[in-house]
Amino acid sequence: MLILVAKRLTAVVLILLALTAVLFALEQTSTSDPIKTMLGPGASQALVAQKRAELGLDDPIAAQYARYVTDLVHGDLGTSYRTRRAVSADIATFLPATLELALFGLVTAVLLAVAFAVATTLRWPGAGAFRLLLMVGASAPAFLLAIGGIVVFYRELGWLPATGRTDFVDAPTGPTGLLTVDALVHGRPAVLGDALQHLLLPGLAIAVGPAVSIGRVLRSSLVTTLRTDYTRTARAKGLREVEVMRKHVLRNSIGPALSMTGLQVGLMFAGVLVVELIFAWPGLGQYTAQSIPVDDFPAIAGVMLLLGVAYVLINTVVDLLQAAADPRIEA
Amino acid sequence: MRAPLAPPTTALVAEVVDLHVGFTRNGRQVEAVRGLDLQVRAGEVLGLVGESGSGKSVLSLALLGLLPEASQPRTRGVVRVAGIDMLTASPQVRRQVRRDTLGAVFQDPMTSLNPTMRIGRQVAEAAGSGAEALRLLRAVGIPDPERRLGSFPHELSGGLRQRVMIAMAVAGHPALVVADEPTTALDVTVQAQVLALVRRLRDDIGCSVLLITHDLGVAAQVADRVAVMYAGRLAEVGPTAAVLQAPSHPYTVGLMKSRLSLTTDRHRPVQALRGGAPDPADVPPGCGYAPRCPLAMDPCSQTVPDPLPVGTSAHLRACLAEPSRVQDLALTAAPVTAATAVPAQRVDAGWAARVGGIEKTFRVKAGRGRKATLSALRRVSLDVREGESVAIVGESGSGKSTLLRVLAGLEQHERGEVELGRGGRPQMVFQDAGASLTPWLTVGELLDERLRTEGLPRQERRTRALAALAKVGLPEAVYGARASELSGGQRQRVALARATVVPPEVLLCDEPTSALDVSLAATVLNLVQQLRRELGMAVVFVTHDLSVARIVADRIAVMYLGRIVELGDAEEVIRSPKHPYTKALLAAVPDFGVAPPALKGEPASPLSPPTGCAFHPRCPLAVPDCAQPSLDVGLERLRVGADLLLDADSRRVACIRPKEL
């Protein structure tokens, strides 16, 4: 297992190195000129030349790349042309809101997936209707779901809020930046309830699609596992059906669903960025959306790198979880 | 008229009364069991024999109260275990009976254990505690049981896994152990060990065992009584000796005759039951066996015979024919015809294929991220003469299939030569005919594919394809059918037609009969022999079954862990085996009579073949020299000093102690 962990971590480092190379190459080939973005179109030749030298843009490409990677390792993602602040500081500001939404979406997706898979496999009453509802939801893109959700639950019914993270002007801002957690830390249940209400619509909008993907994979592996000889053996031992499910069926069914969850997380990031715009969610999606029109390359690259790191790490964790669940998986 | 009950003096642990089980499969009503009466007495081993579709496995599931709900079972009658009717009791009550009274061993030990749970926990689930699990593992003869508690199933060999299954089955002292084909997936030497274990546990624990098998020979070894099932009904039941010595049902006679043994006449076609088993969705109204029965009379197709006593009340049979006519049937043999005798092999024949000094290794995962080298073939040499049939016999891991695949050019070897005669590429027939035929192509398209390489016009190709089908005994209608529409036996015929539609010089067969029922296997063997004769092909036939090898082959090569250990004339090798491994293999072939002495130990892993002669850890003749790492024992003629021990020029044995052989 240790060897497996070491191998996977090596792979993570290599993949991230490749990602930085791609980002660097994109920056080099980009038609936008960072100096012009920074100094404005009317800057003098001398000023431009001085700024280029200052930023090291006249150095050889290899040296620039080495400096880029070294800075990254030290947590320096560069300075945003737009906000004039360190990109890392910007990200630290906007990340918690996105993280909270993404985690909420992921948990919702997994819960919906398990409910979907178990209910349809064991033919619980109402499973068919539940399945139909999810399938209809999953066949629409996240932004459409988001808009539809706002129209129905905000405008028509008035049950749920449509914008932002909270209605409280004095909502706590620390220590984690995750509003639900901070509300608990500060002992303010009203803020917690309000934060959850705000999470519900955007969270569901990004969760339904992945939930169906994960749920279908889990369902088919549950069906397969229920038919296996070892499930029959477990029943022949006289185990209770609950024990058969818990000890023999679920663990052997979870592998493919884990893989699918890892893959869906990537899609979910994309969904989060779009959904944030619709719900005016103050997260990385907003930040990126504002950076793109002004060619704020360090900001865009910083967010891309962060998402890449998160995606790779999550899938590495999924691989390790699978190896832990199934002793036959070896490096 | 119902069968009389067993004598009241004998306690029953399970009783089946007029059991009917039907399923809905693909929208069709299937009658799997159609009125079965059976008693399992306390402390007995009851052997239940039947071919696939006879309903024997459905009966075992009914006894366990585990009929698959997805198939919507419809049941009638009574299946009483420990006083509980397993058909009508609530799921909780049935579960309790399984827990307290029943144990189960299933066919495939590779798939019947949970792959993600340690052995110790799986046994403890049935045994109640870790200490009891350890005791059970020791009782079923698992070496180093303390260490094995922490193993996962994939770290154990098939034989050990089946022992683990048996340990779980006998946990908690069950009154009845239902063993459904417990040895079918095992090697023959391991099968003998497991059967001996079943018998010993019965003696120690005093439980009853319902041993379900398709092989009358297996039942004969360990059962006190034998029940024969056909098409969901009982054909015959009685004490083992009575059923085997005086079979009183034509089906039992047919089974015994189509069963290959080491004494079956090689010069006649193997006797096959005519026709196939009835479609369980459309069983004839009378006796299910009537359409295939040589003794069938008019009433047989209308009247369902009930099991009635023959002579003693312990021996029942369900047949309308006179017992004496059945006895006569048992004594008649198929006539020898000149056409069916296999031609003597031409002495002056050249070779059709030869391999010399072949070495083949595979890189495999060995756990903890390491790779290991599996030596599948270790310097194997073999000549196949024109028109000759050579059988390669060995257990799993012996390299027999790899050798065949090297011959076929499907596998690259590292060292040594493969030479083929004039005929070009050999053709191959596989064990699983269903999986080796492309599912979306019709039989005609499959055959056409082969013929197209010959550059024939379309009409000619069609004619040739139809002729090939006729040759393997298939009707023209099969030309347009796909594999899924054919039965197992028909698929194997199509595979043979595909391989021979352009006659190859060498036909390679990889266990083509081991997935088939006894009666179907016999017809396929006959077909291979007939094609070989008519097309003048050489045949290389891989099998784990010595009695099959003896029937199909002129010469037999016995393989153990990647080496040929004995090579010689088929009849001679069977009659007087020389190598200790060949002797052990022969002794382990189940037959009517006493249980064979079980060879100690399991086949060693090809990942780490023992040094010297790889067989020495299991060999009764082994001396310290046999384990010498420098020892490289090759095939030699048997000689002591200058004297050849065997006249037969062809015999070669790989052993350093020829004097003792």
Category from helices, strands and their pairing of chain A? mainly alpha
CATH structural fold name of the domain at 386-412 and 422-426 and 504-661 in chain B: Rossmann fold
CATH architecture group name of the domain at 386-412 and 422-426 and 504-661 in chain B: 3-Layer(aba) Sandwich
Annotated CATH homologous superfamily of the domain at 95-294 in chain A: MetI-like
Taking the alpha carbons of the first and last residues of chain B, their distance comes to 60 Å
Q: DSSP strand (E) fraction of chain B?
A: 15-25%
Order of helices and strands of chain A: HHHHHHHHHHHHH
Order of strands across the widest beta sheet of chain B? 6-7-8-3-9-10-12-11
What's the CATH H-level superfamily name of the domain at 386-412 and 422-426 and 504-661 in chain B?
A: P-loop containing nucleotide triphosphate hydrolases
CATH class identity of the domain at 95-294 in chain A: Mainly Alpha
Helix fraction of chain B by DSSP (H/I, runs of at least 4): 25-40%
Radius of gyration of chain B: 26 Å
Instruction: Identify the overall geometry of chain A.
Output: globular
Q: What is the number of beta strands of chain A?
A: 0
Distance between the termini of chain A: 8 Å
Characterization of this structure:
Chain A is 75% helix and 0% strand. By secondary structure, chain A is mainly alpha-helical. Chain A has a domain at 95-294: MetI-like (MetI-like fold). In chain A, α6 (127-138) packs across α9 (189-226), α11 (241-278) runs antiparallel to α13 (297-325) and α12 packs antiparallel against α13. Chain B has 661 residues and is an alpha/beta fold. In chain B, the strands form five sheets. In chain B, strands 6-7-8-3-9-10-12-11 form an eight-stranded mixed β-sheet, with helices on both faces. In chain B, β18 (506-510), α16 and β19 form a beta-alpha-beta unit. In chain B, α4 crosses α6 (158-170). The longest helix of chain B has 18 residues, at 188-205. The relative contact order of chain B is 0.09. The interface between A and B is medium-sized, with 28 and 32 residues.
